[in-house]
């Protein structure tokens, strides 16, 4: 779709109606794109249909025939009015000021703009970058930090990713698979805390076939009504469809890097094009689509990180996990250096500026190399924390990298408090006093 043309946004009442509208509009040869709903028109986790304004009347006629609930809005840019005025006395480079002016006016940033922001080492410019990202976070998604719980239900994996501590062939002390009763017990513990979304994560383990997973999802939905995020790797489009119909709302499938050569070097038995195809399928099927990247991969350049951020924007990703590379014992990369905390924070900040109405986790990986990492991430644009809710007897066996921080509710509360953010009202915790 030509970004220079005026666009409109179609917001439907439900995901089912959105997918139906998207399909029939495409069938009428109108070019559309599925995008995270702009914050002024809908929630952070919803998807809308973007199309050029010249096709608005035709689209309306099509939608009236199928009788679904919808609204059409202008695709307004989000401006940061007063930004340049507030920076008058700041000593910023000309190139940095030009980009700040683009952000104030709501103009899209180019790859070159993103590279400038990521490259800056001037303390005042870094401070300004973080401040702008935090202001956008506050205006777009507010002060509430979403709390979610991850259950790592299997550390078996058929893939040999060079960076991963549960890769096939890695000499782990203990491989495990949780059965349905164990998973449900962990889910119920999250329900007791008031948490509304569970993340079911594993290696790429074919033991849990689609039929087994669908049965589990249906049971979780029926018993708890929770939102469900899956992070189980690459599957077929039909599998993704069945899992969606069984109750999966969200899917996290990280790209890790959009540099094809680096992707192929770190994933010796994965196919880059297949990973992209899976992301497209998830988008088409109406998932709240998750992705992310690692900062500090071998051979990675600033330009690669910029391309990653543009990929998140162009793919319409809703949840973006950005964390530092951390070497894992027993892997081909075990002796490589850890990724930079500062570059990770800059990438989070720029992603908030570019992608806007998205979930940005304060990642476990960041907390694993910096005890204060989650607080820092929340202060530069992040708005989500994922608890490690795997049963204690399995936790140390799900080591994707060394010295993994087992984020619990106490550490999450501390990060929220220290960043002057707010907890969601749905949490049922006796020790959340002192935090709004």
Automatic annotation (TrEMBL):
Claim: Iron-sulfur is one of the keywords in the record: yes
Name assigned to this protein: Iron-only hydrogenase maturation protein HydE
Matches recorded under Pfam families: Radical_SAM, Se_S_carrier
Keywords: 4Fe-4S, Iron, Iron-sulfur, Metal-binding, S-adenosyl-L-methionine
Binding site for [4Fe-4S] cluster: 157, 161, 164
Binding-site positions, (3R)-3-methyl-D-ornithine: 231
Cofactors named for this entry: [4Fe-4S] cluster; [2Fe-2S] cluster
GO BP annotations, alphabetical order: sulfur compound biosynthetic process; water-soluble vitamin biosynthetic process
Cofactor remark: Binds 1 [4Fe-4S] cluster. The cluster is coordinated with 3 cysteines and an exchangeable S-adenosyl-L-methionine.
Keyword DNA-binding: no
Species of origin: Alkaliphilus peptidifermentans DSM 18978
Matches recorded under InterPro entries: Aldolase_TIM, BATS_dom, Elp3/MiaA/NifB-like_rSAM, FeFe-hyd_HydE_rSAM, HydE/PylB-like, rSAM, rSAM_sf, Se/S_carrier-like
A molecular function (GO) term: metal ion binding
Residue ranges of domain Radical SAM core in the record: 143-363
Binding sites annotated in the UniProt record for S-adenosyl-L-methionine: 256, 275
């Amino acid at each position: 779709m030509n970004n220079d043309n005026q666009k409109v946004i179609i917001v439907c009442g439900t995901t089912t109606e959105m997918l139906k509208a998207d399909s029939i509009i495409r069938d009428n040869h109108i070019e559309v794109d599925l995008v995270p709903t702009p914050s002024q028109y809908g929630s952070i986790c919803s998807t809308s249909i973007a199309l050029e304004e010249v096709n608005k009347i035709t689209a309306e006629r099509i939608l009236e025939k199928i009788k679904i609930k919808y609204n059409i809005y202008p695709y307004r840019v989000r401006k940061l009015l007063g930004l340049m005025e507030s920076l008058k006395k700041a000593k910023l480079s000309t190139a940095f000021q030009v980009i700040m002016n683009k952000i104030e006016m709501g103009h899209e940033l180019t790859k070159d703009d993103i590279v400038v922001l990521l490259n800056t080492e001037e303390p005042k410019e870094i401070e300004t970058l973080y401040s702008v990202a935090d202001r956008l976070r506050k205006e777009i998604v507010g002060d509430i930090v979403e709390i979610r719980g991850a259950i790592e239900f299997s550390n078996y994996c058929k893939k040999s990713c060079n960076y991963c501590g549960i890769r096939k062939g890695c000499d782990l002390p203990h491989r495990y698979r949780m059965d349905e009763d164990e998973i449900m017990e962990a889910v119920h513990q999250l329900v007791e805390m008031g948490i509304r979304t569970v993340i079911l994560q594993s290696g790429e383990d074919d033991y849990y076939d689609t039929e087994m997973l669908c049965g589990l999802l249906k049971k979780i939905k029926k018993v708890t009504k929770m939102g469900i995020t899956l992070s189980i790797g690459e599957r077929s489009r039909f599998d993704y469809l069945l899992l969606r119909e069984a109750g999966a709302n969200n899917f996290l499938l990280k790209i890790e890097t959009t540099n094809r050569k680096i992707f192929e070097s770190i994933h010796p038995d994965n196919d880059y094009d297949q990973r992209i195809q899976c992301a497209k399928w998830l988008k088409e099927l109406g998932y709240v689509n998750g992705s992310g990247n690692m900062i500090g991969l071998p051979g990675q350049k600033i330009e690669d990180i910029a391309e990653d951020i543009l990929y998140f924007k162009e793919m319409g990703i809703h949840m973006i996990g950005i964390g530092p590379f951390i070497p894992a014992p027993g892997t081909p990369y075990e002796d490589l250096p850890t990724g930079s905390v500062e570059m990770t924070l800059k990438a989070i900040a720029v992603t908030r500026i570019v992608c806007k109405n998205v979930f940005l986790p304060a990642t476990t990986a960041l907390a694993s190399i910096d005890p204060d990492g989650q607080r820092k991430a929340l202060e530069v644009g992040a708005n989500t924390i994922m608890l490690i809710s795997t049963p204690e007897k399995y936790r140390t066996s799900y080591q994707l990298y060394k010295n993994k921080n087992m984020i619990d509710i106490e550490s999450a509360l501390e990060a929220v408090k220290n960043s002057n953010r707010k907890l969601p009202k749905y949490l049922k915790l006796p020790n959340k006093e002192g935090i709004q």
